[in-house]
Amino acid sequence: MLTIRSLLLLGLLCVAEAAPGRKGNGNGNAQANTQQTAQTAQEQADQIPGGISEATDGSTILDMTAEVNGQTLRFKVSAPADQFTTASGVSGGSQAANATGGSLGLNVLLHGDGGQSFFDFPNQAVQNNLAGVAVLAPDPNLFWGGGSGLDRTDGVAHAQLVNDLVVDVLPTVMAFNASHVSFTGVSGGSLLLSGFFVPAHIGNFADATAGQESQVLLNCGGLTPQVDVAPAAAAAIPNVRMHFQTTQDELALLQPAIPAAIKAYEQLALAGGLDAAAVGALQTVDNSPVGGHCEFDEQDFVSGVQLMADSFASVMQGGDGTLNGTDVNVLNPVVGNEDLVFSGAT
Asked: Signal peptide span per the entry (predicted)?
């Protein structure tokens, strides 16, 4: 499995995700960016080989590409070998393509700007019956939704790609329970999920009448819906478990955007027939960690994102809301906590 060192050698520094919309290596050093190479982040990522490797729990990671809507999309799947299809190329894969009724659900991660979390793959391995999936943004800068900052100009197309990957392509790679597909966003990935994917497509994954359940974890990012909320999504949102996680020293451009997203989704749940108490149980928020962007462990971007991945079951799947290895409980209802107070900005 690729290490952080190998990423650094290719110029994909972790701070590339430190601010939505930054180009180059994201460290603000224009001279260093110029001297580095003329390659885009996507071209640098293309130099990192895919293939088959071992996950942290000893199961299998398949890193591959597929054509989705005429676009080459790279993604990773982490699961026991026997859950892959015979056509996947994984040794031991025994499932028929498009087999239904797999025992594992999915946790699909969208990385932040620059792609660090795709290569780190913090949600790899099977965690509380969810197989990990990570998808690489099909953008020269590896920005989910393209564009820059809060203006994600390719958000509609990218959200459609994620939907179609899960619905049409992943069943040819592994058997999974299509009634239990959840999503994790990191920084720019959270912007795509909240701004475009959830309002357009979450109805495909959280239809209560079809027995579908879904969770959406929005780490260090959030947008109000940037597209019309589809009728199926409007009906699904009152059944979707959502958590907004940020920090005290969040980026300045995100400090107003995240509360606005919280209010928007709270209103959608209320409009769907829930009362305030039900909304507060379904949608939660926290910004207590005293750290910068995505530093949920109050130490570092990478380890902070890993902490939230390790805490997914506790925060999103009916646990007590305590972050892994800490006494920090993040399950604060959004009702009454919409206007987050930040101590500073990084």
From this structure: 1-18
Amino acid identity of 204?
Answer: N
Residue 338 lies in a domain: no
d(CA 188, CA 92): 36
The distance from CA 148 to its chain's CA centroid, rounded to whole angstroms, is 18
Dihedral Cα 32, 154, 216, 172, nearest 10 deg: -100
Whether residue 341 is contained in a domain is answered as no
Q: Nearest Cα to 259, choosing from 229, 222, 220?
A: 222
In whole angstroms, give the CA distance from residue 62 to residue 44.
Answer: 20
Q: How many residues does the chain have?
A: 346
Structurally, the chain folds into a number of domains equal to 1
**Radius of gyration of the chain from Cα atoms?**
19
Domain of residue 158: give its range: 4-333
- pTM, full prediction: 0.91
339 belongs to a structural domain: no
Residue 191 three-state SS: helix
Structural domain includes residue 342: no
- The CATH number of residue 258's host domain is 3.40.50.1820
Tell me the sheet residues that pair with 241: 215
Task: Using alpha carbons, select from 249, 243, 263 the residue that is nearest to residue 341.
Answer: 249
- Provide the 8-state DSSP code for 194: I
CA atoms of 113 and 135, how far apart (whole Å): 12
d(CA 131, CA 178): 12
Contact by Cβ (8 Å): 248, 289: yes
- Cβ contacts of 290 within 8 Å, gap of 6 or more: 247, 248, 249, 298, 343
307 contacts: CB under 8 Å, gap ≥ 6: 296, 297, 323, 324, 325, 326
312, amino acid identity: F
Residue 6 has pLDDT above 70, yes or no: no
